[in-house]
Specification:
Blueprint lengths: L1 H19 L11 E14 L10 E15 L4 E23 L5 E24 L2 E22 L16 E19 L2 E13 L4 E14 L2
Length: 220
């Protein structure tokens, strides 16, 4: 039994070495790749307009488009954009001050939409299966609409009727990432990318996202 297993183990080791060998990275210098993706993003957000309140977690589906250029056999420059579909967010125990009527406390609810643009750099290794690590820097716009504060102490939790206006927030985005890409056909590949997201600006936030991307590449 032991003798029969050794050739299989050696073959597996050879295949794994070929797939992940850094010297034969598939990011051929000068290659251009188009990415179309979808995924999900979860962010820990502070309530707008609030003196105090609990952090609310959003979970939004997203679509993305991007371009990658292989600067060397191991380094790729990236650029692209994303759009996150509207999602409902709520913050319990939120206190909202007003100019003439004091402070109201309840559950703040609103619809969140986010979009933006990013550029970055990745280090890639592998031939058929590629592992990548990198970082992206960019801008995002967050739109909070249909805001209302519910009086949870009253039956049915009615809206206080404060008439809170829509608010937009622009943030700097910093995203470390790690990815796994599989070249399943000539010019075609699929990738899974995990990102840690930090929003820096007037309303800082953090979160995580995961995306599935279909890629088409042209090689010199």
């Amino acid at each position: 039994m032991r003798v029969a297993c050794r050739p299989r183990k050696r073959a597996f080791a050879v295949i794994l070495t070929v797939l992940l060998a850094p010297g034969v990275a598939r990011a051929d210098r000068g290659a251009l790749t188009v990415d179309l993706g979808t995924g999900a993003t979860s962010l820990a957000l502070r309530p707008p307009y609030a003196e105090s309140g609990r952090t609310g977690w959003s979970l939004a589906l997203s679509v993305s488009f991007g371009l990658r250029y292989a600067l060397t056999n191991q380094l790729e420059l990236t650029t692209g954009g994303f759009y996150e579909l509207p999602v409902h967010v709520s913050h319990a125990g939120t206190s909202v001050p007003t100019v003439d009527s004091g402070t109201f406390t309840g559950t703040l609810e609103y619809e969140l939409t986010r979009f933006g643009a990013l550029a970055g750099i990745r280090y890639v290794s592998g031939l058929v299966v590629r592992v990548s690590i990198g970082v992206e820097l960019g801008w995002s716009h967050q739109s909070n609409s249909a805001l209302l504060l519910r009086d949870t102490a009253s039956l049915g939790a009615p809206d206080y009727g404060l008439g809170l206006p829509d608010v937009g927030v622009d943030s700097l985005v910093l995203q470390p990432l790690v990815g796994l890409e599989w070249a399943f056909a000539d010019h075609w590949s699929a990738s899974v990318v995990l990102r840690l997201t930090a929003l820096l600006g007037p309303e800082p936030a953090f979160g995580i996202s995961a995306g599935l991307t279909i890629c088409y590449g042209w090689f010199p």
